Structure formats: C-alpha cells, structure tokens
Amino acid sequence: MKPSEDEHVELRIAVDGPAGSGKSTLARALAETLGYMYVDTGAMYRAVAHKAFQQGLDPARGEDQPRIIEIAAQMEFHFEWQDGEMKLHADGEDVTDVIRTPDVERLSSPVSAIPQVREELVAAQKALGEVGGIVMDGRDIGTVVMPDADVKLYLVAAPEERARRRWRQLRERGTSRPFETVHMETVQRDQRDSSRSVSPLRPAEDAIVIDSTDMTQRDALERALAIVEEALRRRERGL
User: Fold this and answer.
1) How many domains does the structure of the chain reveal?
2) Which residues of the chain have pLDDT under 50?
3) Quick one: pLDDT at residue 57?
4) Could you report the per-residue pLDDT of 170-213, keeping only the tens digit for each?
5) In this structure, is residue 23 part of a structural domain?
6) CA torsion sign, 238 to 30 to 102 to 177?
7) In sequence order, which residues have a C-beta less than 8 Å from that of residue 109 and are 6 or more positions away?
8) Helix (H, G, I), strand (E, B) or coil at 158
9) What pLDDT is recorded for position 105?
C-alpha cells in the first residue's frame, strides 16, 4: 500500500528506536516508497567517529574530546539518493561504507554521548529537517530534533532479537563475532543511550510504538505506511 499522491502535502517523519530495532531499514524503505529524502542521523555520528578513529582519537580520553567536538562542529554533511541507495558525503567524501566497520561503530556511541558533539550534530539535523518530504531516523528525532514532526514512530524489539539481527549483519559483511559478545554490546549500548545526560533514548509522548520483534521488514513498512496515510488524511481534513 502506498499513500495517495498529494503534491501539496509533504510530511516530516521521525523514526526513533534502539540499535537493531529495524528503524533505519524501515525509515529508508519508507522514504523510498514516499519519494522523500532520507536522513540517517546515526550515520552522521559514525562519520565523526570515523574521522576521530583516523586521527587516533578516543572519546574515553578527556584530552581528546575537544578535538572530537571540533570535528563535529566543522564537518559538512550531504545526503542524496544514488542508484536506489542513500549516500552520505561528509566533507565531500562518500563515507557510506567506511563508517560501517566494527571499529567505527564501537566508537560511535561514546562519541555521541559527548554533550557538545550532540549539540553540534543536532543543530545540523534540525537544519536538514526544516523542510517537508523527509524521513529522519535516530534516537532523539521525535523528542529533540523534530519535536513537531507530523508523524513520530518509535521502533522496539527484544534485545535478543536485535542482537541476532546485528550478528547476522556482521556475518554478511564478513565479520565473525560470538553472538554472546554482540548481545552484551547491545545491552551496554542501550544502557549508554538511555542514561546519557543529553537527549537520552526514549519515545516521544505522542510517538506510535511499533514492536518489530516478530515482524518482517514488509510488515513494519505496511504498518508505517498505514500510519502515514492516516496522517495525510488528517492533514487534508485540516485536523
């Protein structure tokens, strides 16, 4: 099901949730189906982590944090569809693939926990989200970045299922790691993301929660599209 065409209505859609909940897969498919721009905010934090990793910086070292904050403040981001895939260019470089390495992904959560880094990237995300026709996913989109979004979705899934998805994803990329390790890292990341002082992971009060534990990707997309269709109908009725 694809929502009815209305060239005058372009919604701003926020998709939040913990790692492995399927939010990025859903947000990307939703944007592609609707013909909207897709912004993966997690990729922006990974891009900062990638540059920090290249420079040998560690967010756990206090003396390294000012430089990491400077990287976040100076980095320029550009998202665009290319051959059916949303590409991220950071400072003019296509970093879509290099930011998915285990080393970078391990750094991304502690990098994102630095308050000043979040402040810099949230400002960039708010600028990207000022126009309609956008689907943005992350962990604080509906609460901080786009609190006035037309549709707010919050995906959840059991920790074991999220770890299993991550474990399979790593295997597909040629990285073999014990499931127990991936599960432990998933739980630890949940703890860091939900307990950080700035923009902690939590659903917006008006978010619609979708539990994807037993859902296929298609099931989740159909559910999201139904919610978007209802939002479009309400907009057309002036509600």
Assistant:
1) 2
2) 1-6
3) 96
4) 888 787 789 999 999 888 888 888 887 777 788 999 999 999 99
5) yes
6) positive
7) 189, 192, 193
8) coil
9) 84
Helix then strand then coil, % of the chain, to nearest 5:
50, 15, 35
Residues 145 and 227 in one domain: yes
By residue range, what is the domain housing residue 214?
11-36+133-234
CATH value at residue 95: 3.40.50.300
Output the pLDDT for position 5.
Answer: 47
* 0.90 surpassed by pTM: no
Neighbours of 128 (CB within 10 A): 18
Q: Are residues 31 and 140 in the same domain?
A: yes
Longest Cα–Cα distance of the chain, Å, equals 55
Integer CA distances (angstroms), 37 to 74, 87, 137, 170, in order: 23, 11, 11, 27
Are 230 and 123 within one domain? no
Residues 65 and 18 in one domain: no
Q: What is the pLDDT of residue 158?
A: 93
C-alpha closest to that of 53 among 116, 95, 4: 95
Same domain, 24 and 93: no
